[in-house]
Amino acid sequence: MSASAHRANSDDNQPQTALTLWRWTFGMVAFFAAFAAYLSYDEFQTPSSIPLKSTTVATVPLFNAWTIGWNADRALHGFNGYWDAPIFYPADDPFAFSEPQPATLLVAPVCWITGSAIAGYKAWLFLSLCLNGFFTALLLRRIGHGLFLQLVGGTAVTLLPIVHQRIDVLQLVPVWGIIWFWSSLFELDKTPGRRTAAELGISFAMCFALCIHHGMFLSATLPLATLVFIRRLPDRTFLTSSMQSMFLAAILVVPIVAPIYSAADANAFARKLWSVKKQSATPEQLLATPSNSLIQFSQLENSNRRRFNPGWLRMTFAVLGVTAAVVWGQRRRWVVFLLLTAISATTLSLGLNLELFGWKPWQLISEYLPGFGQVRNVFRFVWLIQMSVVLLAIEGLATVLAICQKRFSKSFLKPALAVFVAIPGVILATEVLPEDAQRGGVPDLARHKGWTQFIRENNTVNQPIVCLPFASGNSINDFDVTTRWMIYGLEHRAPMVNGYSGFFPQTYFDLRNFVNAEFPSASVVEKLADLDIQYIVVARKYCESDKLLHTAAGRLTLVYQDDEAGIDVYRFANP
After folding, report:
1. Which candidate, 79, 103, 333, 341, places its Cα nearest to that of 203?
2. How does pLDDT run along the chain (575 residues), one tens digit per residue?
3. Assign residue 501 a region: left if phi > 0, alpha if psi is -120 to 50, beta otherwise?
4. Measured between alpha carbons, how far is 31 from 11 in angstroms, rounded to an integer?
5. 389 phi/psi in degrees, rounded to 5
6. Which residues does residue 485 pair with via DSSP β-bridges, in sequence order?
7. Whole-angstrom Cα distance, residue 125 to residue 245?
């Protein structure tokens, strides 16, 4: 064939290939959107509640809903004052005290259209589950697997046990950033260039935009896992593309993490060793399977709720996948990468529970790696373990599929494939199904429209308010009331001295403890006046107006009573 004919043939194939990719994309998006809708059915059926799993109160889900609402609100204002969220007044950059989750801007239109951060929360949960499956299918397609294995793998990752065990910790649900990064990494390995370098840099940054924890923990596993690319370094194109991707990733990640590290340093945020040890995994927990897993070994089960084994069938197929890669060499680099990731993540997940001759590696990591000194939930490396095991299990299933296709090549034997491949594939995908979640009620914005609208229309710009009661203690249950005040804050838009976050400034604790101990005394009123607070918002069941006005000795004026919400609003009288 002449060169011109070859070029003509290539030009003819390019549109066909692009069309095939678009059809594949549409089909996969449709499948995983339908599957995510099925998994999120309760979110549509009960719009006034959200799922609870790891706790019995809605504190964390409501805080994440507030985060989504704040991101959407700042987008409308050109991200002006993005880090200066209206909580913990007068603290600097309080939005940097926790996960900012800027990727949730993808559902900002939902918040704008509905006027509800809760609707944005539900949309983000649905989208995260959908993209978890889609990006897994894309990765497997790029690795070279067929449609059946793509659907099995995507379904398995959508049903990842640890995700549904912590479904109420919304920032941990979207693992698609990590999957996309792995996919981009091996795409760059296959075809290095500017396009793949850009995709790799963007996908790495997306991990941090979705969840700082996921981004940090992924980064901690890369030094060992990326050893598989050492032999590629002499390739100048590969090396140049890798450097370009790292440069782009740094440009995109630094604006997200720098304010967080700065806030942690300014406030001396750190975790107590006993807390880190408690939140580190144990070997028993890593072996224990969820109570609804198809295969159980009772002697390995522990009494608490931490059961991190993704399923023994998946573990078995994962071992088969590793063995096949070693023996036959198919996708060996990919399999070894996953294996090294799993080994790194397993070791690191043990945190302070891992001790080598009196030396605890996690202490060294937390002291010298930026950000790790603020990590408490070390067990979250389990997300990477389970993802690696599932993808290795797909390699094991691919080995079985290849053997069966060879053995049962004759048409009358092909039904045997359903027994030896299709059925195990379905079981592998659904080995651990999500258990039903409890439901937590969400704030009724319509019921609280009166007082929130009053403050929005009458508050002096940037003058703070305080909402009482404060949290009564330091447990997650105590802060349920605080996160509800924060959701109402998205409506009235006044800065509050109240707040909930991953970290708390000491000024908040000092004020809260004083108010909880002395309220409604005159000394509390004077303390709040010193903070230049304009309004005190009080739940009537916490303190009746007659009692507060009496002790305030003329310093407060009752300016609004919301009988429907049971809220009274007081303003400081002129001295």
Report:
1. 103
2. 444 444 444 344 445 566 688 999 999 999 999 999 999 999 989 999 999 998 899 999 999 999 999 999 999 999 999 999 999 999 999 999 999 999 999 999 999 999 999 999 999 999 999 999 999 999 999 999 999 999 999 999 999 999 999 999 999 999 999 999 999 999 999 999 999 999 999 999 999 999 999 999 999 999 999 999 999 999 999 999 999 999 999 999 999 999 999 999 999 999 999 999 999 999 999 999 998 888 887 544 444 578 999 999 999 999 999 999 999 888 999 999 999 999 999 999 999 999 988 888 999 999 889 999 999 999 999 999 999 999 999 999 999 988 887 776 665 556 666 677 888 899 999 999 998 889 999 999 999 999 999 999 998 878 999 999 999 999 999 999 999 999 999 999 999 999 999 999 999 999 999 999 999 999 999 999 999 999 999 999 999 999 999 988 889 999 999 999 999 999 998 65
3. beta
4. 31
5. -65, -45
6. none
7. 29
Beta bridge partners of 440: 50
Which of 170, 420, 437 lies closest to 292 in space, CA to CA? 437
Give the CA radius of gyration of the chain. Answer: 27
Find out whether 374 and 96 touch, Cβ atoms under 8 Å.
no
Tell me the helices (H) and strands (E) count for the chain, helix number first.
24, 6
- With vertex at residue 81, the alpha carbon angle to CA 64 and CA 473, rounded to the nearest 5 degrees, is 45
Say how many C-beta atoms besides its own lie within 10 A of residue 319's C-beta.
Answer: 14
Structure tokens at 539: 């739940």
What backbone phi and psi angles, to 5 degrees, belong to 536? -110, 120
User: By the 8 A CB rule, do 51 and 61 touch?
Assistant: yes
Structural tokens at position 362: 């996690």
What is the rounded CA–CA span in Å between residue 471 and residue 481?
A: 7
Q: Which residue has the tokens 């007081």?
A: 570
Hey, is 241 helix, strand or coil?
Answer: helix
Quickly count: other Cβ atoms within 10 Å of residue 529's Cβ: 16
Which amino acid belongs to residue 474? N
**Closest Cα partner for 82 from 209, 259, 264?**
259
Q: State phi, psi for 538 to the nearest 5 degrees.
A: -125, 130
Domain boundaries, the chain: 270-407, 443-572
Contact partners, residue 526, CB within 8 Å, separation at least 6: 555
| Nearest-10 crossing angle of helices 117-143, 59-76 | 90
Q: DSSP string of 466-521?
A: EEESPPSSSSTTTTHHHHHHHHHHHHH---BS----SS--HHHHHHHHHHHHHTTS
**Between β-strands 49-52 and 438-441, what pairing exists: parallel, antiparallel or unpaired?**
antiparallel
What's the burial of 527, exposed, middle or buried (CB within 10 Å: 0-12/13-18/19+)? middle
